[in-house]
Amino acid sequence: VSTQSTGEITGLKDTIVQLNAALKTALEENSSKQAHAGAGGVFHLYAEEKRRMEEQVRHINTENGKLRSKVKKLVQELQDREDMMDEEIERIKEHTTATWDEQYRSWMSKTESKMSFLRQSNDNMQSFLIKNARHLPFGATNELLLFNEYGEKVTVFQ
Q1: Are the C-beta atoms of residues 78 and 51 closer than 8 Å to each other?
Q2: Could you tell me which of 49, 42, 44, 60 has the C-alpha nearest to residue 23?
Q3: How far apart are CA 85 and CA 138, in angstroms?
Q4: Distance of alpha carbon 118 from alpha carbon 108, whole angstroms
Q5: What does the CA dihedral 98, 102, 108, 112 come to, rounded to 10 degrees?
Q6: Tens-binned pLDDT, residue by residue, of the chain (158 aa)
Q7: Burial class, 94, CB count within 10 angstroms (exposed 0-12 / middle 13-18 / buried 19+)
Q8: What are the φ and ψ backbone dihedral angles of 155, each rounded to 5 degrees?
Q9: CA 50/CA 56 separation, integer angstroms
Q10: Is residue 32 helix, strand or coil?
Q11: d(CA 120, CA 116)
Q12: CA distance 27 to 32
């Protein structure tokens, strides 16, 4: 509900209260004037004023009804939009979760495949070096240092 609509409603309510008070005052004055003046011309003026004020009250009540209807409509639209946004957020969460889970599984599968390939390559290289260590030139050293998959030194003597 907008602040402007709330302000308009409050203003209209205040106007209705003021008009009702003015109508009551006018009726009281009319009664006292009528008692003093009889059925003369003053009554006619007050009756006209009363009729005009009642018309204003009807008009204000009509406007008030229209504003209430508009406020209800706006509140309903706001609730509908909030519901749509909640549904959209939930859909996005589900989509994101599913997408990221799928991407993570794919990445893990590729990573595990690469790790397996590297382990196998390392095992093959170590096997080759161990079998052919006597035929490879290593300079002044008498040993070949290899590292296993855990980073531990594996020594192979020539």
Answers
A1: no
A2: 49
A3: 70
A4: 15
A5: 150
A6: 566 677 788 888 888 888 888 888 888 877 776 665 555 566 777 888 899 999 999 999 999 999 999 999 999 999 999 999 999 999 999 999 889 988 999 999 999 999 999 889 888 887 877 777 666 655 434 455 566 666 676 655 43
A7: exposed
A8: -100, 135
A9: 10
A10: helix
A11: 6
A12: 9
List 155's β-bridge partners, or say none: 145
CA dihedral angle for residue 115, residue 120, residue 123, residue 127, rounded to 10 degrees: -160
Q: Distance between CA atoms of 71 and 79, rounded to whole angstroms? A: 12
Which tokens sit at 155? 């020594």
> Which residues does 77 contact at the CB level (< 8 Å), separation at least 6?
none
Residue 20 structure tokens: 């009702």
The residue to which tokens 């070096």 are assigned = 129
Placement of tokens 């009729």 in the chain? 51
Structure token pair of residue 10: 């409050």
| DSSP string covering 78-131 | HHHHHHHHHHHHHHHHHHHHHHHHHHHHHHHHHHHHHHHHHHHHHHHHHHHHHH
Which tokens is 46 given?
A: 């007050």
